[in-house]
Design brief:
Number of helices: 10
Shape: elongated
Order of helices and strands: HEEEHEEEEEHEHEHEHEHEHEHEHE
Mean pLDDT: 88
Oligomer: single chain
Low-confidence stretches: 1-5, 17-33, 141-150
Strand content: 15-25%
Largest sheet: 7 strands, mixed
Structural class: alpha/beta
Helix content: 25-40%
């Protein structure tokens, strides 16, 4: 029997046989024939205040240490909303989006492993991290300039001739020296939530340094936006059950209970700080909180939260990623005479980021509705609408998702 094969057929058969015999995957720097990379990429570029334009740019060359990622989705962060509204970092024009994830479609020949030593190949799902070294002293993105050879924060980079710098796009070029993790074992929504969840994993670690946050602690979480709700979920995975959530939105408070809050307090139903304080202590059965997490970004809310904490208690403030103004407290009554232990938390360390992968699996395992945090999904071409929705505080977590 005659069989006619052209050279392409022969190469395909040989490749299939070799891979089946040796269990090999395509070498780094190659991609399966099914992967088709377009000649151009689309990037949502913030060109002026409150105005993204989806621009088309040539697909860049992939260097020996680079990774080209097809973006699947990216969460909208409060930082994105601040930049959209006010440009506090002075970056316009800028490609935003740092809570992103996607699939590797092409890799440089030198790329073999992710930042945790896990093998990488075309087709793997990845996220990037703004921290480049496993150094407890490096927790802020502006300190990453110490990391020679690394990129800065994707989604907060000044525009350049590559343009694929933020996750609000359909492709992003992850440059050599960046921190990248293989998270193929997590679903899309979990991967979109990794970055904000890492902020709360870090906050919990900061709180634990006080020695006050324990298994049976009574904890108040003020602010039930995405950050506060994730805070509650982190506490529940730590086994902490006595959690009181404080917010002014009943829908968010209802969701806080689903995330693990034992009781909720709507500050809109209490006139004045004394009444609100009583509402919180009543929710704890007549006791003040052992520990508090302040997640609002409101200076007035920061001033109030001291009243909810018992003598000798602790407080973690994590609501101010940017300057939100001054808070007025009485150092004698609020801090000194009560001997409050106060810690601040801003971003995370590299090891907190890696721990977050396990947190997300644990949260789902105990039945917390993490996926439902993402209440709105917008395509890239509707990014302006997505940011406006975020600013109006409609829903919970807003995401850009490419279909």
């Amino acid at each position: 029997m005659d069989i006619e094969l052209n050279s392409a057929d022969v190469q395909a058969v040989v490749r299939q046989v070799l891979e089946s015999m040796m269990g090999q995957t395509p070498a780094a720097g190659t991609q399966p024939s099914a992967v088709s990379i377009p000649k151009t990429a689309h990037v949502a570029m913030l060109t002026s205040l409150e105005n993204f334009e989806v621009k088309e740019y040539p697909m860049p060359e992939v260097g020996d240490g680079d990774i080209l990622v097809k973006v699947e989705g990216c969460g909208v962060c409060g930082t994105d909303a601040h930049e959209f509204k006010n440009d506090p970092f002075g970056l316009i024009p800028v490609a935003l989006g740092h809570e992103g994830t996607g699939e590797i479609v092409k890799m440089g020949k030198n790329v073999k492993l992710d930042s945790a030593g896990k093998p990488l190949k075309v087709g793997d799902k990845v996220v990037t991290c703004m921290i480049f070294k496993d150094n407890p002293d490096i927790t802020m993105f502006d300190l990453n300039k110490q990391n020679v050879g690394g990129a800065d924060v994707y989604g907060l980079l000044e525009d350049d001739d590559i343009h694929l710098n933020g996750w609000f796009s359909d492709y992003i070029l992850v440059r050599e020296g960046s921190t990248v993790f293989n998270v193929s074992d997590l679903d899309l929504k979990s991967r979109i939530l990794i970055e904000p969840c890492a902020v709360l994993v870090h906050a919990a670690e900061r709180a634990k340094t006080t020695g006050i946050l324990r298994f049976n602690s009574k904890v108040v979480v003020q602010g039930c936006g995405p950050i506060g709700l994730i805070c509650i979920s982190v506490l529940r995975t730590m086994g902490i059950e006595h959690i009181v959530a404080v917010d002014g939105n009943e829908q968010r408070l209802d969701f806080a209970k689903r995330m693990g809050a034992e009781q909720t307090v709507n500050f809109m139903q209490h006139k004045g700080i004394e009444a609100l304080t009583k509402g919180v202590t009543d929710a704890f059965g007549g006791y003040a909180a052992d520990f508090a997490f302040q997640c609002t970004g409101s200076p007035a809310a920061h001033a109030n939260i001291y009243k909810f904490i018992r003598n000798g208690g602790g407080l973690c403030e994590l609501g101010f990623f940017i300057n939100g103004g001054d808070a007025v407290i009485n150092p004698h009554f609020d801090l000194c005479s009560k001997e409050i232990t106060l810690v601040g938390s801003w971003v995370y360390t590299l090891r907190d980021y890696a721990t977050t992968f396990d947190f997300l699996k644990r949260a789902k395992a105990i039945g917390l509705p993490m996926d439902e945090l993402i209440t709105h999904e917008f395509p890239l071409e509707q990014i302006n609408e997505a940011l406006v929705t975020n600013l109006k505080q409609e829903g919970l977590k807003i995401a850009i998702v490419n279909r």
